[in-house]
């Protein structure tokens, strides 16, 4: 209670530099005392899970939608008049015709008035460089998203060309960088793109050159928008008084893969600016917390390089700029960014937050106004400090690479007396009582036309925002096919929806707010197999418990979505060949075919060996499949028309196909799996998950040997990577949300091998394990935690007796995990890798 009240004071009190440092340190000491063995003295605390979860929900819910392969009269309106009026007419037509796309062919478009976007309709250029919009008016917004959602701009260039008045145009700013007197065209107040009072909107693959006042403006009341792969360069007005901004003023917005330069500020400012994420950008411009943001913004994994000719008043990351501005209300977070200041002689800033052993920095810890009032120097180079330990995965924001589909329609319906009423609200309600007139059922509609192949698994996710308990502490919520898919959320009623049908799946929902999941694979597969594109689902309570459950709708923060599990890009072998034994064991056979044969004389055997560099696989995949393409199958001896082919894990990993021989490869390692191969040519597959996970665990390549189980004499030829790369041996990784490239495994921990007795004061076995980890020699009161490879804490236990402890891990999925032990009576922790097998 003392800590809670202290944190409340810390949160709301506007601190000076020294006060804020003192309070942060005192907060840490208080938390350390209260948590006892959980955080050792002198160690930084870990980032709260609530912050990490919130940041990973930044941007458009479910990610930016894919652009169709083609634009026809069935799905799009084509712009024919290359003017702002022509574009606006196409947007309005698409809205009235129920189409989602407006297509702009390559060409030059003259904008003399604002283009006003509308919900559900996006602009797509034929190409980024070929579709060019010239901004030829002084005030307002070139493209405006106002009170909109689920719309965006793709593949085009916006360029400022402001009228001089004599038929010519201002085309290039005079001043490269910002200065107090650098407003070259004071009458020009145009914003190139403005997002205001809007959510789930996006700008993707767009260039913005030579803007008037601001290239991009996200207002303080805009949220869950994504700016991706946008290049910004130049603005005519870069002087004082809020000019030349790349402005992030709202909340839960994502800026990623962008480049920005030659403007006044990239800024997060205003009390509406909070929980935004800037990730994986290349900025030749500073990042500023310019004035009184609410904090909790994340700046991670960016490359910020200030050019040598930039004024020395700029620093790579800054607090307040002026004595007129109040500092951030709460800490912002900076992690693993490369800050290079060529305008300060090539200085690199805040090295402690960058690299393999980095900490998460927090700040700004001082403001220019506050420093001046206290009579101290305001130092941008000391304005952030180490606040939290690095996340075990080496990343805080894990990206949005999963394929998702957001609901296109959602509402709830009622039965009985109210079955003819429509309930299209910002919340989705579920309730079941003894009188069906008081029941509420949620209705969802998804468009799955973007799914190109039948998915292996589809999960419905919904965000519970309130749980009104009546007669039970939990509710079982079932999901059904709704029967019809041509309903509209603004008119649908209970009378329109059939109440019968089979349960697809069910989930128990409690008072714990957050995301809940249902497996709806069968429903989506049925729709796709029938050649349809709309999935209509109905959710209702299984019992009359009268509990009142409220979920977010698409009009709220976290729209209902489908997460689709598909195969990600396959990993092709880096070496493949076959080897022989006996008299030929010293020969190399690097040919275009991979041959398998097993007879009683080992000199005539042939084993295929393939290797893969699996260092690019991060996270813990659900399953990994080896695929090999059979060219020919020749029946010989007593084999018959089929052969069982085993895959073994070899202990030789670094061989080269151009010189490897049978002597270099151990004859038989651990059996991984087997598959029956017959005379039908094509791909055959083996489950090699355990072998690949073991290689990831050991930090080696995975090397696999294929051999016929019995000496049946059959002769099989498979395709090598030299013969046909498209048919080469490959690993297919099944993973719902692959972490982005560059993620690392538990880089912040010193990891120990479980069986290394010289490093291990405990006896921990078995590894791999199917159900339990036995930990011997551990003191009573020690804390045990298990993390997945992304750094999420999955299980936490306290040892309730000395010496021997059995840790139940049977509910974990197969994969690689990390066990961390906080030993009672010490200020130290130790971490160990282990594999969970089936």
What is the secondary structure topology, with strand pairs?
Layout: H1 2-12, H2 17-35, H3 49-55, E1 76-78, H4 84-97, E2 101-104, E3 107-111, E4 115-116, E5 122-125, E6 131-135, E7 141-146, E8 149-160, E9 162-163, E10 169-170, E11 191-196, E12 199-211, E13 214-218, E14 226-235, E15 245-248, E16 254-256, E17 259-261, E18 265-268, E19 277-279, E20 282-284, E21 287-288, E22 298-300, E23 303-306, E24 317-318, E25 332-335, E26 338-341, E27 347-348, E28 360-363, H5 368-374, E29 385-388, E30 403-414, E31 427-430, E32 440-447, E33 457-468, E34 475-481, E35 503-509, E36 514-519, H6 521-529, E37 534-541, E38 548-552, E39 561-565, E40 571-572, E41 575-579, E42 593-596, E43 607-612, E44 623-634, E45 642-649, E46 670-678, E47 682-687, H7 689-698, E48 702-708, E49 715-719, E50 730-734, E51 751-752, E52 763-765, E53 772-778, E54 783-787, E55 793-798, E56 803-808, E57 815-822, E58 829-836
Parallel strand pairs: 1-2, 2-5, 3-6, 4-7, 5-8, 6-8, 7-11, 8-12, 11-13, 12-14, 13-15, 14-16, 14-17, 15-18, 16-19, 17-20, 18-21, 19-22, 20-23, 21-24, 22-25, 23-26, 51-58
Antiparallel strand pairs: 9-10, 25-28, 26-27, 28-29, 30-32, 30-39, 31-38, 32-37, 33-36, 33-38, 33-39, 34-35, 34-37, 40-50, 41-43, 42-49, 43-48, 44-47, 44-49, 44-50, 45-46, 45-48, 52-53, 53-56, 54-55, 54-57, 57-58
Helix pairs in contact: 1-2
Model regions low in confidence, pLDDT < 50 over at least 5 residues: 1-41, 735-759
Estimate nothing, just give the exact number of structural domains: 5
**Annotation field: number of helices:** 7
Supply the CATH architecture of the largest domain.
Answer: 3 Solenoid
Structural class by helix and strand composition: mainly beta
What percent strand? 35-45%
Beta strands, count: 58
In quaternary terms, these chains amount to single chain
For the biggest sheet, the summary is: 19 strands, mixed
- Average pLDDT, rounded to a whole number, is 84
Percent helix, as a range, is: under 10%
Question: What's the CATH first level of the largest domain?
Answer: Mainly Beta
Coarse morphology: globular
CATH topology category name of the largest domain: Pectate Lyase C-like
Distance between the termini: 44 Å
- Please state the CA-atom Rg, rounded to the nearest Å: 30 Å
